[in-house]
Amino acid sequence: MTSPTLSVAMSVYNGERFLESAIASVLAQTFTDYEFLILDDGSTDSSRAIIAAAAARDSRIRPIVRENRGLVVSLNELLVEARAPLIARMDADDLCKPERFAKQIAFLAAYPDHGVIGSYTRDIDENGAAYHNSGDDHPVTHDAFLHNIVHGGPLLAHPSVIYRRDVVLSVGGYHAAFRHCEDYDLWLRVAHHTKIANLPERLLDYRHYAGQVSNRHAVEQQTGAAIARMAYMERLAGRPDPTAELDSLPPLGQLDALFGRDGVTREVRGAIARSLVYSPFALRGTGFELLLQHIEDGGRGRDLWLTVPRLVRFGEPRRAARLAAALARA
User: Fold this and answer.
1) What is the DSSP letter of 33?
2) 88-126: b or e for each residue (b if 16 or more CB lie within 10 Å)?
């Protein structure tokens, strides 16, 4: 069988709510030389039936059905199963614009020194309406990408990317230790080996809703991202990456020992705390205690004071009072 130009990789777990529309947006692409791998990661809803029905209608769809093993295992399995040299990521709750694949493949053909290409996204809510997001757009050039790593800016929207399969395999694929931010860690490792960019066109509708991973696991996600960035700086300085062989990340209190120097825990804790001040999910949960610890470590700034009224708006007046008292003492 002739290998396709592109493999589309989608992992699904209980994605019935948006799955049909996500699949339809892939099948409506103007570029057609692709296989569509859809891995059902042990769903207990109707996802499996939706995938089977779609596969019966379009032979490009290759279903993979098994028990639940988690997203990182699923992404690495899709890497192995893919028959094409290029892989397009796609999530079960987002929507591709019809010209997405064609434009990204054309870019990679024109720029062989680039191994990953994403795009700007349009933010939508659970009903498909425009969703207000005050964040910056993703970096268009590799130099801007590297700048954002150091300064904490956005890098890539994972479901918007197409990457060269051999580049991602060469760095070991997705690492299990960075659960819920496995893509962020991957980009930081890949950035040492190839150029990465984004097309300044909104080729993906990125959906926001209460049940998505970035809301439910905000603290764990930002913790992993801060540690991944610290590991990136170690590699950049020519030092060994102490996270390279980890299956799971240690508690924050053990980071000084892991990295072999004092101050790493405090630096990582500060980065996490400042990334969580806009998240109601994090501030209603364990992220709040982490924020208080950051203030004890010497954290200051107007953004922390602005979190006090924000907590009131989030329906947490007692936590707002505790935060104000901690800032006043500091």
Assistant:
1) -
2) bbbbbbbbbbeebbebbbebbeeeeebbbbbbbbebbee
Closest by Cα among 71, 36, 25 to 206: 25
The answer to whether 252 and 226 have CB atoms below 8 angstroms apart is no
Q: Give 132's pLDDT tier (boundaries 50, 70, 90).
A: confident
| pLDDT at site 243 | 97
Is the domain of 116 the same as that of 62? yes
C-alpha of 195 from chain center: 18
Residue 21 and residue 131 share a domain: yes
Among 215, 235, 259, give the residue marking a domain's end: 215
CA distance 10 to 90: 5
Q: What is the pTM of this model?
A: 0.93
Whether residue 206 contacts residue 122, with contact meaning beta carbons closer than 8 Å, is answered with yes
Nearest one of 10, 27, 198 to 96, comparing CA atoms: 27
| Angstrom distance (rounded) from CA 283 to CA 232 | 27
Residues 182, 33: Cα–Cα separation, whole Å: 28
**Residue 114 belongs to a domain:** yes
Predicted pLDDT at 77: 98
The confidence band for 278, taking pLDDT boundaries of 50, 70 and 90, is confident
pLDDT in tens, 21-63: 999 999 999 999 999 999 999 999 999 999 999 999 999 999 9
- Number of residues that make up the chain: 330
Q: Cβ-count burial of 34 within 10 angstroms (0-12 exposed, 13-18 middle, 19+ buried)?
A: buried
> Is the pLDDT score of 134 beyond 80?
no
Q: What is the DSSP letter of 175?
A: -
